[in-house]
Write a structure and sequence with these properties.
Blueprint: E1 4-10, E2 14-21, E3 27-34, E4 47-48, H1 50-65, E5 75-82, E6 88-90, E7 100-101, H2 109-119, H3 122-128, H4 139-148, H5 150-155, E8 158-160, H6 162-171, E9 176-177, H7 178-181, E10 187-188, E11 193-194, H8 196-202, E12 213-214, E13 221-222, H9 225-231, E14 238-239, E15 243-244, H10 245-252, E16 260-265, E17 269-273, E18 287-290, E19 296-302, H11 306-316, H12 320-328, E20 338-341, E21 356-359, H13 368-392, E22 399-403, H14 410-420, E23 424-427, H15 432-447, H16 455-459, E24 465-471, H17 475-506
Helix pairs in contact: 2-4, 2-8, 10-15, 11-13, 12-13, 13-14, 13-17, 14-17
Amino acid sequence: MSDLFVGIDSGTQSTKVVICDGADGRVVARGASPTELVAGLPPGHAEQHPQLWFGAMKAALAEALADIGERRACIRGLGVSGQQHGFVALDHDGHVIRPAKLWCDTSTSQECQYITDALGGLAECLGRAGNRISPGFTAPKVLWLKRHEPANFARLHTVLLPHDYLNFRLAGQRRMEWGDASGTALMDVRSREWSRPVLDAIDAELEGKLPPLRPSWEPCGLLRGDVAHELGLPPGVLVSAGGGDNMMAAIGTGNVRPGVVTASLGTSGTIFACSDRPIVDPDAEIAAFCDSTGQWLPLLCTMNVTVATEAVRRMFGLSLDQFNEAAAGVPPGSDGLLLLPYLEGERTPDVPDGTGVWFGANRATHTPGHFCRAAMEGATLGMNYGLRRMRALGIVPREFRLTGGGARSRVWRQIVADVFNTPVVCTVEPESAALGAAIQARWTWLRQDDPSVTIEQACAGWIHLDESSRCQPDPESAARYAELQPLQDRLSLDLRPSFAHARSLAE
């Protein structure tokens, strides 16, 4: 029997597991388990109990293992993908101090400004770390804990990210790899080292609370014996470095060389490309991340994609099929109905106090179909705002590989092809982050015998495109969206002074 490799994707809403055949990457088993956010928090706050992630991982893994029976003895490696930017605070004994503040938590605007001012402004932030200090990132969350919960900060011994916490539970190691660590805003992405000026702006002793940084191809360790028994896995399974969900999705879509670009239509929207050099945006619109293979991953992130479409779907009480059917019955451009989809604030553009705005509503456009399509279009135009900046920085997409729940919609895939004016296609395996984690685990395992094995070699034969999903841009529709983009951009710019006031009225 061939070797098996496990990929675990611990997300905001659920944890998903795939078990892959080492010979050809075929998924032989899968499992899933939901997770919930802490309820009742004020607007802008988003938190989750890290213990839930381990429980969801255990449940999803049990479901997958039940399908392979005795073949579980063939499992050689395991990799973890996790939601980026979340702040897991551990005490000296490795206990979680409080719920983790998540990537979608926008409550740290004041802390962002404090750190930025302490460093001397945006240009200095870019010079010291390569990224702006954004509410989504980990750095301001650490300062928030210090300012708002000093007793908990006094207990803080180790700062971890969500996937690092699961690695800690699995292998007993407190460490970070370059890819996920680059999303903290605590690291200089060019040198791949902690940025001492940023750390000092938060707390003079913060460096001692950060785990060591390690290359993404180095294993985190071996699965602890007691944990292997608890999870039903064989002893000695290698735990790879893992990474953030976007870094793992890049691997899982074959985005491991320049020219291939991935776009994810999930809760948030991301577009990321592989680069053999760090790309620091002087306007700080594009995040200058590292990837989890030893290269770099310029990335844009919007916080409202299926957030927007799900809100409209619930508003009209539609099933997913009904939602897509309604959207398909409305022409491109939704007859002038536009959505600024800032239901959770926004990261690109940087509008943390943003709120959702419908523009162009009248008797003709006040139908379920118009609102459904406008939600898809608004989310996609929002992503295109950042994509144009990526193009200006030298990223040349030849093809977009789509992932995320929104990519399952044929209507939405065509909208993306038209707005981006570039062909799009999905991969056969929809769980790209989990697949990427399994590939990284296999790559790390192979390197134990042959350190020359490349990530491209590890991906070979594992990435398959679903040609039935391919969409080519329609010239007429692309031209229509090119006309709408400046209107949405102008609305966003003009309304920004009013967003903070609107947010205060809701609190």
